[in-house]
TrEMBL record, chain A:
It holds the Pfam family Transket_pyr. Its cofactor is thiamine diphosphate. Keywords: Oxidoreductase, Thiamine pyrophosphate. The keyword Oxidoreductase applies. Residues 6-181 form the Transketolase-like pyrimidine-binding domain. The lineage of its organism: Bacteria, Bacillati, Actinomycetota, Actinomycetes, Kitasatosporales. PANTHER family: PYRUVATE DEHYDROGENASE E1 COMPONENT BETA SUBUNIT (PTHR43257), PYRUVATE DEHYDROGENASE E1 COMPONENT SUBUNIT BETA (PTHR43257:SF2). Gene3D superfamilies: 3.40.50.920, 3.40.50.970. GO terms for molecular function: magnesium ion binding; oxidoreductase activity. SUPFAM superfamilies: Thiamin diphosphate-binding fold (THDP-binding), TK C-terminal domain-like. This is 2-oxoisovalerate dehydrogenase.
Automatic annotation (TrEMBL), chain B:
One of its GO terms (molecular function) is oxidoreductase activity, acting on the aldehyde or oxo group of donors, disulfide as acceptor. Keywords: Oxidoreductase, Pyruvate, Thiamine pyrophosphate. Coiled coil: none annotated. Residues 61-342 form the Dehydrogenase E1 component domain. It comes from the Bacteria. Its cofactor is thiamine diphosphate. InterPro entries: Alpha-ketoacid_DH_E1_comp, DH_E1, PdhA/BkdA, THDP-binding. GO terms for biological process: branched-chain amino acid catabolic process. It comes from Streptomyces agglomeratus. Residues 9-24 have a biased composition (Basic residues). Residues 1-32 are annotated as: Disordered. This is Pyruvate dehydrogenase (Acetyl-transferring) E1 component subunit alpha.
Length: 326, 382
């Protein structure tokens, strides 16, 4: 059945299954991805069906996981590795930024690095520290990496297919608090390009640009604002490197106002990059400065405080009001 | 070959001369040796080797030409033609011996000092100089010679080697992989993780550690409290220490480790006990941290001299051979010198090439902006 309503986690599972099925060079690697199916069960059942040689439980060593994936890619494999949580990626950071990202350039294009690194990221699930972070900007700053994040099940399915088929390393940030949200997936649809933004909701007064877990918040904010007679356009960026600036520009030239929303700290974040570039591109169209809504320059707080830390409906609407006040 | 049996063994040479059985001195470690510093051929119970005179001459030629290439590169750095050079002086036997044990279908992951290994793999030595001249980050296609690009970050490549070896095993191939690294790298977490992964997955990888005694200014004692080859035991695979200035022993021990890997018996750690006679790189000053006497003591163990002594003693080589090799060395030096000076600077637009395999909108945008910016000067100049 090509069209099904699936939770986002299950859509990724189906996508990985399709990839394992169609390409014998695809491998799944990570801590607990085999028998357990991953701590979020994203790889559930894959080892049972494809065996321990294709779905590989690894030692508990993130640098080792990424470093050996690089070696496997050099041998012609297409590894899809799981980092168990966002805050655990840093032991692998060296391998990702000094090795994985640069191998293609260093070899003058001779080496391809078709490695996907899956990272469940972001907060909102009441976890302990190091389990709720949004480190995407730290990766987007590095040339050679591509960074994407789906916000719904259809994108989760198709963006994973495209990430695996890419000859570039892709960091695939999975919005963990949306893992259980269900939406339709058409496994026979023809997807758009991986790095294009999508208009989720059309509007005329202001553009909200978001990705991953924040898209849902922005859609809810737009619905709430509509009741007050404000028309908000919501863009799902889908990709943080590259960023589809053309799509943002098109929207901003229409609405003349932009608010960027993400969970990551605002300081040096992707919102800063978007604000700077859209100011350059759309200076004479803008009626207000580009505003950002996101996390604070503070460690991700204990779970009992994350509701205050994470941008919610009210903080987004407050930024909308501030923008419209100019 | 187990760690225990290695540790229990004494070098044959010292077993005849030894006056005391007390703990080994750092200058006389327990190691596998087949050719003494005096050029005496000795036997070892676990590592026999039987080479034809031609094969011995081949090893000698490899070492001499590698040293000549290395000396030329050092000179070129002093003349300002190269930005930096990492000399292998003193490590020729470790590199040539280990690399000549390899088959063509084996795969090598080097550091940035494996010029002798590159030589044996058939990588043109002039290709090694591009990164040191600053025209690229590695000027060869790794798949042509199964010789990966030099890796600057210490120890990273040991994980790549392990992953590659895991792939070899998955493919059902019987080739093997060698990861080169130094005593300094042995302190890196990646090296420990590569030991763990290779042991757990029984990967056909040989870890070839050239313990050249110094990690820039830090001695091996700053990296480890146990002999490095003994590390392997804790990970569940054998480790062996070999005289790194003895090309025959390096060949025999690496060959044994490779065969073990091919048989599906997993990784081996080889510690080649050797000495970096020069500086870490040309930007380093070893006189600030080590004594002249130390270098002099190691010069007496020179890998090339000892093989020459043996070849002459056995009558395997005559003056014509050594003269011919001298001519070949000079010709190699000249070729390298001319090739470096003829190396063109890369095109300025190369900055934007090969950042991504599938392209990237930002790179395209910045490439176009930079091209327009550069073109604006050309227009002004008209």
């Amino acid at each position: 059945m090509p069209v099904q309503k699936l939770p986002l986690a299950k859509a990724i599972n189906e996508s990985l299954r399709t990839a394992l099925d169609t390409d014998p060079k695809v491998l799944i690697m990570g801590e607990d991805v085999g028998k357990l199916g991953g701590v979020f069960r994203v790889t559930d059942g894959l080892q049972k069906d494809f065996g321990e040689e294709r779905v590989i439980d690894t030692p508990l060593a993130e640098s080792g996981i990424v470093g050996t994936a690089i070696g496997l890619a050099l041998r012609g494999y297409r590894p899809v590795v799981e980092i168990q949580f966002d805050g655990f990626v840093f032991p692998a950071y060296d391998q990702i930024v000094t090795q994985l990202a640069k191998m293609h350039a260093r070899s003058l294009g001779k080496i391809k690095m078709p490695v996907v690194i899956r990272i469940p990221y972001g907060g909102g699930i009441g976890a302990v520290e190091h389990h709720s972070e949004s480190p995407e900007a730290l990766f987007a700053h590095v040339a050679g990496l591509k960074i994407v994040s789906p916000s719904n099940s259809s994108d989760a399915y198709w963006m994973m297919q495209q990430a695996i088929q890419s000859d570039d390393p892709v960091i695939f940030f999975e919005p963990k608090r949306r893992y259980w949200d269900k939406s339709e997936v058409d496994t026979e649809a023809i997807p758009g390009p991986l790095h294009t933004a999508r208009v989720v909701r059309e509007g005329s007064d202001i553009t909200l640009a978001a990705y991953g877990p924040m898209v849902k918040v922005c859609v809810e904010a737009a619905a709430a604002a509509a009741e007050e007679g404000k028309s908000l356009e919501v863009l799902d960026l889908r990709s943080m490197s590259p960023i589809d600036f053309d799509a943002i520009q098109t929207s901003v030239e229409k609405t003349r106002r932009l608010v960027v929303v993400h969970e990551a700290p605002v300081f040096y974040g992707s919102g800063a990059e978007i604000a700077a570039r859209i100011t350059e591109r759309c200076f004479y169209h803008l009626e207000a400065p580009v505003l950002r809504v996101g996390g604070f320059h503070a460690p991700y707080p204990p779970a009992r405080l994350e509701e205050e830390y994470l941008p919610g409906l009210d903080r987004v609407l407050d930024a909308v009001d501030r923008s419209l006040a100019y | 070959m187990t760690v225990e049996s290695t540790a229990a063994r004494k070098p044959r040479r010292s077993s005849t001369k030894r006056v005391s059985a007390k703990k080994p001195q750092r200058s006389e470690p327990e190691l596998v040796q087949l050719l003494t510093p005096e050029g005496e051929r000795v036997e070892h119970p676990d590592y026999s080797i039987d080479l034809t005179p031609d094969e011995l001459l081949g090893l000698y030629r490899d070492m001499v030409l590698t040293r000549r290439f290395d000396a030329e590169a050092t000179s070129l750095q002093r003349q300002g033609e190269l930005g930096l050079w990492a000399s292998l002086l003193g490590q020729e036997a470790a590199q040539i011996g280990s690399a000549r044990a390899l088959r063509d279908d084996d795969y090598v992951f080097p550091t940035y000092r494996e010029h002798g290994v590159a030589w044996c793999r058939g990588v043109d030595p002039t290709n090694l100089l591009g990164m040191f001249r600053g025209v690229n980050h590695g000027g060869w296609d790794p798949s042509t010679n199964n010789f990966h690009l030099y890796t600057i970050v210490i120890g990273s490549q040991t994980l790549h080697a392990t992953g590659y070896a895991m792939g070899v095993a998955k493919d059902g191939a019987d080739s093997a992989v060698v990861a080169y690294f130094g005593d300094g790298a042995s302190s890196q977490g990646d090296v420990a993780e590569s030991f763990t992964f290779s042991a757990v997955y029984n990967a056909p990888v040989v870890f070839f550690c050239q313990n050249n005694q110094w990690a820039i200014s830090e001695p091996t004692e700053r990296q480890t409290r146990v002999p490095l080859y003994q590390r392997a035991q804790g990970f569940g695979f054998p480790g062996v220490r070999v005289d790194g200035n003895d090309v025959l022993a390096c060949l025999a021990v690496t060959r044994d480790a490779l065969e073990r890997a091919r048989r599906g018996e997993g990784p081996t750690l080889v510690e080649a006990f050797t000495y970096r006679m020069g500086a870490h790189t040309t930007s380093d000053d070893p006189t600030k941290y080590r004594a002249d006497e130390e270098r002099e003591a190691w010069e007496a163990k020179d890998p090339i001299l000892r093989l020459r002594t043996y070849l002459e003693k056995e009558g395997f080589a005559d003056a014509a051979f050594f003269d011919g090799l001298e001519t070949e060395s000079e010709s190699l030096g000249r070729r390298v010198r001319e090739a470096v000076r003829a190396m063109p600077d890369p095109d300025q637009m190369a900055i934007f090439e090969n950042v991504y395999a599938d392209g990237h909108a930002l790179v395209d945008e910045e490439r176009a902006q930079f091209a327009a910016y550069q073109a604006s000067f050309a227009e002004e100049g008209k």
